[in-house]
Amino acid sequence: MVRNVASTCWECASKCGSLISVEDDGRVSRIVPNTKSPVSKGAFCVKGMRALPEWTYHPDRLTHPMRRAGERGSGRWERISWDDALDEMADRMAAIRGRYGALALVGAVSGAAFSRGPIMALLMRSIGSPNWMINQDLCGGCRAVSDRLTGLAMTNGEDIEAAACILVVGRNPMAADPVQWMAIKRAKARGASVIVIDPFRTSAADIADLWLQPKPGTDAAIAMAMMQQLIAAGRHDADFVTRWCTGFDALAERVAPFTAEHAAALTGVPAADIVKAAALYAAGPSVFVSGHGIDAASNGVQTFRAFHCLVAISGNLDRAGGNRRAKRPAGFTTCMDLLHDPRFRLPKKIELQTIGAAQYPLWAGPAGWQTACHNKSVLDAILTSVPYPVRGMYVSGVNIAVMYPDTRRTLEALRSLDFLCVAAHTMTPTAAVADIVLPKTTTLEEEEVDVSQTGACVTYTAPASTRIGEVRCDMEIAAGLMARMRDRGALTAELLPWTSQADLIRFLIGDAEIDQAALRRDGFFEFPYELGNFSAQTFKTPSGKIELYSSTLADLGLDPLPDYVRPLYERAAGSASAEFPLVLQTGQREKTYHHSRFREQNWARKVSPDPTIRIHPETAAKLGLADGAWVVVETEAGPAPCRLVAEITDRTAPGVVTTGIGWWRPEAASPEFAALDININAALTYAGPMDPMSGSVDTRALPCRLLVA
Ligand SMILES: Nc1nc2c(c(=O)[nH]1)N[C@H]1C(S)=C(S)[C@@H](COP(=O)(O)OP(=O)(O)OC[C@H]3O[C@@H](n4cnc5c(=O)[nH]c(N)nc54)[C@H](O)[C@@H]3O)O[C@H]1N2
Ligand SMILES: Nc1nc2c(c(=O)[nH]1)N[C@H]1C(S)=C(S)[C@@H](COP(=O)(O)OP(=O)(O)OC[C@H]3O[C@@H](n4cnc5c(=O)[nH]c(N)nc54)[C@H](O)[C@@H]3O)O[C@H]1N2
Ligand code: SF4
Ligand SMILES: [Mo]
Prior knowledge:
- This protein has 709 residues and is α/β, with parallel strands linked by helices.
- The protein has 25 helices and 25 strands.
- It is 31% helix and 16% strand.
- The strands form 6 sheets. The protein has a 7-stranded mixed sheet with strand order 5-4-15-14-13-6-7, with helices on one face. It has a 6-stranded mixed β-barrel with strand order 20-24-21-23-22-25. A 4-stranded parallel sheet has the order 10-9-8-12.
- Helix 8 runs parallel beside helix 13 (300-313) and helix 11 (260-267) packs across helix 12.
- The protein binds ligand MGD (2 copies), iron/sulfur cluster and molybdenum atom.
């Protein structure tokens, strides 16, 4: 008898509602979208439908713990029991802790949005180390820092359904977020206007009423000009500004020189289009849909500050058709809440030693967004012992070797550790250099409860499939390690009090008024919330208001007002040189893959067999490049070249070349599985320059050149 389970796909942050068919043997045979989900409304993607079950039941799935049996990266492993794996992990971590101190141990995950984030953070804190790495400096770091500084708390709360105007900036929803993409298409069909700002002609640009194609990294000038237009025409929301914002006069003065003509000169977008964009946006309600295209950049926080101030002065915060602030049922603890909860913290003097907290206090350490480390500084610490030695690492939920810039240096750092343990689903380039590899559950085998902003409801992910082999989830691994560190007298504090995922979920739900039977039956539970309750749900800034002028930035000696900061390729001395004349964009999402995941799957490799780089016909002609030819890509500051396949298309601008991310080949013979060859991060530097507010480096707008391979 087939069992039907309502669940939520957790393969990405879109959190689509799913209906899962489970066979008698406990295996999942079918996954379809749940049209009743208020989050996704029937949206879904091939990763959730096909890649996730194939990953779960793939013959290459890691099914038992393994210990390295040869040199690092030799590919020789021996099967060991969980007891042996956890005992060895505890012995080696306790030894490092004894010799160098707890701070020499670091955890690594992708971020705090999944429960494995706080589990890792609280595990490391219990051991006495505030150090855990997240890859968010390469992801949504700039928007998060800006959002917090400005006081909006609006990430993911786009109310596209009720918007009259949708402003899409640096986002490719068709590939990255089907929930958003379906919502935009529905809004468009009912007559909403769509503005897209993107150097690349995306599918969203194809359906837009207005497509602005700026030079990469120049978007802040458009936002500044849109504010200038609104303020000059008196079309900003003066009541909202007076009641809830500080620093409006200073902002008005700052944006005054940003006439449409001035912005046009900076961005290459016609002034008339900027005027039109401002007029469409002013006739709201308008929703700002932003993406990675303007994040992960050394001017990223200032770019987001400009757009966030635009949202604020137009009164589009927390109103129907605007950007909703984060909501949760009273009594519910989110993963982010857990990280900041004083009951689960180390003493401040220890947390202040978090790697990177001194240089980037808005990002790393106790006052940082997710309290994590600054990643690049951790890699430096491993290689140089500055500010102190880092000798051991436990990685779960991130493929560091492929996804961080400068693959060679990242691998060098990982290989030089005294101890590295990696939890993964298949052998990855990161796991390949570990001492111990642990087999992880997939999200078909795990239970998660979370709050979705998109649908303002609690979502439930059911452990639908029976587990394959001896796989364990993060909470179980952490609990096993906690017990062993306790036995060895190697715990500083008891900050991870749960021993099962069910315990943790009970804690997160707390005393929130949630019908848990309905949540588990339907895969979601909607809760009532209020919009615009600014007196009750206050702004978390020093002034208690939305800070157009940021007092925190002023205190740190940084620019308290948003501004246009030129992109790297215009800032670097001698760039735009004959040597590196092109501008490289990385990270463009593909429907088939999630970052470096699913590369072992034949169907995906058929759809997308090789990493491509998109080149305008004029640029290709100048370089004598043919469609389908392998090209060598070098960036000006990058450590080494990589190889990609030329795809000639007029969707990109002349001189701007665009590639994806996450390439490696599981079947490749080298220990790095081709991550040093066809992975764009092999050609990128992680050295900076860095955003002074978030510590992010540029993963786009990089001076580069192409050579025929
Ligand atoms: N299928 C799939 N979906 C995913 C992922 C995946 O790997 N695969 N990853 C998920 C994750 S973690 C993330 S962070 C998101 C990322 O997804 P998105 O936020 O959509 O980010 P990107 O695809 O990197 O880039 C979006 C757009 O930004 C544009 N862009 C580049 N530079 C600039 C610029 O200077 N200005 C402007 N205005 N636009 C620019 C690019 O041309 C691109 O069209 O996707 C998520 N969804
Ligand atoms: N140059 C460049 N670099 C980038 C980007 C870019 O645009 N350009 N994008 C950046 C962005 S936005 C992001 S979010 C990062 C993504 O970087 P990663 O988070 O490293 O990307 P994934 O490939 O999804 O890696 C997940 C890995 O964790 C393992 N894993 C262990 N436990 C779990 C689990 O419980 N669930 C899952 N799903 N996996 C687990 C998986 O086996 C897999 O190997 O890359 C960043 N790097
Ligand atoms: S977009 Fe795809 S991978 Fe992401 S939650 Fe939805 S179905 Fe899963
Ligand atoms: Mo991301």
